[in-house]
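Please annotate this fold before class:
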Amino acid sequence: MRSLLLLLLLTLSWALSAQAAPVRIKDLANVDGVRGNDLVGYGLVVGLNGSGDSLRNTPFTEEIMAGLLERLGVNVTDEAFRPKNVAAVIVTATLPPFARSGSQIDVNVAAIGDAKSLLGGTLVMTPLNAADGEIYAVAQGSVLSSGVAASGDAASVVQGVPTTANIPLGARVEREVNFDFSTMTQMRLALRTPDFTTAARVEAAINREFGKNLATLLDSGTVSLDASVLGNVNPARLIGRIENLMIEPESAAKVVIDHKSGTIVMGEDVRISRVAVSQGNLTLRVRETPMVSQPNPFSPGKTVVVPRTLAEITQEPGIGFAQVSGESSLSDVVAGLNALGVRPRDMIDILKAIHAAGALHADFIVN
């Protein structure tokens, strides 16, 4: 009896651990309208150790360099200068929501010419524009490149990507995005992965927390919030309280396959109907071993190349038929597929065949 009770407790604990873990609403949804804005700019990285653009192949680098020097009071008209320590770059950044004037953000830098490396360079003051054409930040500072390249007369080595870099806190915000959150009474939560069950649980959790019909389910990806039912309330405090509520999310069953790396990922809810699988390989080999036939010395004959081809077909015995139990859990599916004893790339072909047979009950995604 004691061993039976222990087994029952272990089974119950395993069942409870197998359930979906609760997740905060802030990790499942975004507040509609609270988002970042993309910024882009065109600038120069200087101070490179001879690894910059060759100005004959990148005339736009010479033009921006001449414009920069003229703005600094240096006249370079009709001057022939060919520096090798300058590279033209595209600078990108994301302006976070509610960023205030004077705050700093990270920027990414990427060469657009034929520069070999940005290691050790310094980005010159570069305005960053948004989609509306206005300047929202200005970037400047020493670039940090994680890649390095070295070459000699007979060999070269490259580690990482030396033509890309970043500048932590390298841009300063100069313009704020006009967005008054404090006066909003109607808000919406947008789920990152739309699902009706998850959205319904978000609605129920919010209404249960406040004891009023604050949230309304609109569709699989949107939950509306009406802050007016709570009277005079601070929207920021309201969202701060809502986003820390815990719910158990639901997701559709999916099988994701990456052909390039041979990676297979299956969700917990993947089910396979009862199916029998057999797998074997057919190998065709063709070998060319031409033979040269030469006449005896001083004979009137001539050298002839005689073709010789050896073709063979080899069929591996395969695994026979193996049965995968139907309507099983993820662990049973994995155990059944592993019982086939095939390699991951062969497993991809098997899963494709099972899906084509209608026995794989999940979204089948191939990248």
DSSP finds six helices and 25 strands in the chain.
